[in-house]
Every structure is written in C-alpha cells, then in structure tokens.
Amino acid sequence: MKKLLCAMLAFLLAASASGCYAIPEPSLPTEQTESTTATGPSDAASAEVHSYPLPSENPYVASQYTHYCASSKGGMYLCSGQFLTYRSVDSDSYVTLCPQEGCKHNDFSCTAYMGGILYNLVEYNGKLYAVVKTEDEHYQVIQKDLENSEIKVIAEQAAFELTDTTQLSGEVCLMPPANGKLYYRVQRNEYDILTTELLSAKTTLTEDTEEAVELFSVDPASGKRTSLIRWTADENAWITMDSFLCTDTAIICVLRTSSIYEDEATSALECVYLEDGTKKTLRTVTDGQTIRVMGAVSAGLVVETGMLEEEPMDFATYQRSHPDVTEDEYSKYYFDAVEQNTKLVLELVSLDGTVLDTIADTKDGYAPPVSAGICWNETVIYRKGNLLYCYDSTTQEAMPLEADGDVINYFVYDGHVWQPYRQDNAVRCVVCDIHTGETAELFTISGGMPGIYAETDDNFLVVAESGILSIAKQDFYRGDFERGTVLVEYS
Questions:
Q1: Domain end residue (candidates: 152, 173, 207)
Q2: The pTM is what?
Q3: Which of 111, 106, 88 is nearest to 29 (CA)?
C-alpha cells in the first residue's frame, strides 16, 4: 500500500507540462507548416509582446533522452540511423553534418557518423554531445565540434557484464550542461538472480543487489573527467536519481531509494558543492511524502514537499461500504483521496538546507503546478486558488497577477507567465510580463494548448500532434502558426 501511495503522489506532483510522455519516433518532415487552428488576438493585444533573452544557462536546450535535440538557433539536430543531420528554420530539408566533398554518408569515413546507437543528444557552447552505445556494448560520451566536424570520445563506460550468477546492467545519461561543464550519470544495477536450487520440490530464488548512481563532470576543453559523487543503496534496495538541477555553485539531486521486499521508500534532497566536491543531504522524506525541486534563485532553491496526512482506505475496506464498487470506481476514489489529503508546502531553502521562507502551502490554497519550472530570474510563480502570484525571492514579498477567469494551469517562458483559460471547446491564452506586469491576450486555439519542447532567445519549438514545430516567438504570440517550420514529424 505504501509503495502504491508513493507512486500515486509522484504521479500527481511530478508530471511535466512540456510533455514528459514517451515522444513518438520521428520521421523526416515532408511539410513545412502546422495545421493547428487558432484565431488571432484582439485589437488590444495586437501590439508586439516584448521578448527576453534566456536568463542563464538554457534549460530547454538540454538532454531529452532522444536521438534529436533543439539547436540554440531554433533548428533541430537529428540522428538518422547512425548519421547526424541538421535542419535550420529557413530550410526545407535536413543536411548531413559532414563537409567532406563527395562523401556518400553511408560508412564510418563520414564525419557525421556517430559510431553506434545514439542514446542522448545535447548542444552546448557550439558543440554537440551524445551518449553512444557501441557494437561491443560500451558506452561512450562523444563530442562533435560544429565548426570542423571533429568527433572525439571524452568519456567511456565499460560494457555492463553478464555471468552465470551475476547480471550487471544500467544506463548512461547526459544531464543538462552548465557552468562550462558537461554532466552525466551512470546508473549501475548489480544482482544475483540465477542462483536457484530444487529442494523438496521447492524452488528458492535469492536476489542480493548492489545499486549505485555515480555523477560525473567533464571539462570539454581538456577532456578531464571527475567523479563528483557516488551514491549506493543498502543490500536489497533500488536507487534512482529522480531529478537534477545545476546552479552556479552546486548540483542538486533528488535520490530515491526503494526496498525490494518491503513497501518502503526514501527520497533525499542532495547537494554537491562544486567548489570542493563535498556533499550534504539537505532533506530526507519517507513513505507518504514527496519532494520536488521547483527551481533555483540567487538565495537558494524553491522546494515543494508533500505529505499524505491520511491514507485512503484499501479496496477491501472501501468495498464494505460500497459493495458494488468496480476497480475503476475505486481507483477514482483512491486518486481523489490522495490528492485531497496531501499537504503541500512551497519553501525557499538555502543551499545549506536552511528554510528561508514559506512561500505558500495548501492551508492558504496553494495548488501544485504541472511543471516544475516556475522560476524566472529572482521571481517565483505559484498558484493559490484561482489566482497566480509573483513572489520576489529577494524581498520575500508576493503580488497577485491580474486574472481573467479561472486559471487551469500556468507556464513560465520568455519572461512571461502564460495563463490558458478554457472557453467552450477551446483554450484562450493570456500572457503577463513578469518584469512590467502588463497583460496581453494572445490567441484562442481549438483543442489543447500547444506544449513547448524548447525555448531559445528568438524561437519556440512547439510540440503539436504532427511533430515539433519551430516558430519565431512573435509569430507564436500572434497565433500565426503557418509561419512555422515542422522540424520533426511524428510517424
């Protein structure tokens, strides 16, 4: 039951607004326009909405754990087979990233050849990085220079082994780069699972595990790799890294440890200080509790903690008072009960773990956002009831935003708070400038609000039903989607 509660809380509190679902396999685009139906803004909103450069490291041009990624210039890199291609916003096709004259782009002599199955793809400071799984099951972190097409291996992980009694498995994942460094983690799962004996017609199975998560940094200039920290779990437990955030001075992770045989789980908010590599556990929560890092400001972190104050009835107990209940009806009751009985607190926390301020909690009507990205510079955006608030982390004061109906959700992009409102079978989008407080109505769109896959200084990459659309920010604000370019078309 406790394991189910934890899973339920994680589902309710950690969904991503920009599409944390499994993204369909892309095919190369055949069209350049998106057919989303939108009506334009009113006359009052026809003035151009002011755009802002990204405040620091671009958190959206980051690892999406796929074989394509956004370019900081608004285009898209895509690995077609084992060859790297690129499409700009003003092109109608992908080009292979190989400058060699006469190259047929079909073997290892091509400078766009990635050397194996591509696992991640990330652009950072004029270079592309990827995790590649080679034919001999090794994992390589590679760097491709976008100016001279040179590819070099900057880190390597040996193949995960399999013997008659021990299976070692895992994964290598790039994390969002920052501070001029590339970060990646290695998830290591080792367990004995093949030791079985037939004793009096009874089969016994032993599973002795050793779990570990190790976080590395790589200096792209020198290629120097540093093991920042290695977390291990107790015997017979799983350990995973639920989230990752990098500031100018520290790396923040949420590590979750779960017991194999018992319904027990613990999540720890861990801080690795970049100056000396030391680690500190800022907070630990157990069963029935959740923790999310919502963003970072100069003063520290914005952290949301959830606690289930009353467990829902199990199925048998609920069935006694509802004898005809179906599984679907019980599931609805269970989800509703968890949501209603979970107390949430949003806090400003320093990097030494000190609580600097309680921003909001459910007693005041705090409602959790779908997306964890609620910070812009020093401002934190949160919701209480049907109103949105801008919280200044430097003064620790909050001001309500002007509302034009019941807010169904909100997003923070381009220095604005995006407020979608339901209108019949459509969504009306209004944005509020965080810097000036000015509000502008954008467009009304049939169906759902388009999700943002990535943001650059000048473009949005929008997730639509047919694929990923690159569109200039001002065209998006005007609802002029036909001026966009489909960079990745879903098959």
A1: 152
A2: 0.77
A3: 88
Q: Is residue 326 part of a domain?
A: no
Whether residue 209 lies inside any domain: the answer is yes
| Cβ-contact 334, 8 below 8 angstroms | yes
Whether residue 278 is found in the same domain as residue 201? yes
Task: Count structural domains, the chain.
Answer: 2
pLDDT in tens, 297-334: 999 999 999 888 788 888 889 888 898 888 888 888 88
Assess whether 88 and 193 both reside in one domain: no
Whole-angstrom Cα distance, residue 438 to residue 392?
17
pLDDT single digits (tens) 73-90: 878 888 877 888 888 888
Q: Indicate whether 273 and 181 sit together in one domain.
A: yes
Residue 31 has pLDDT above 80, yes or no: no
Other Cβ atoms less than 10 A from the Cβ of 447: the count is 13
* Cα separation, 126 vs 131, whole angstroms: 17
The model's pLDDT over 173-197, given as tens digits with 9 standing for 90+, comes to 888 788 888 888 887 765 544 433 3
Kindly state whether residues 181 and 275 are assigned to the same domain: yes
133 with 167, same domain: the answer is no
Q: Are residues 236 and 281 in the same domain?
A: yes
Same structural domain for residues 196 and 88? no
Do 220 and 168 fall into the same domain?
yes
What's the domain range around 141? 59-152
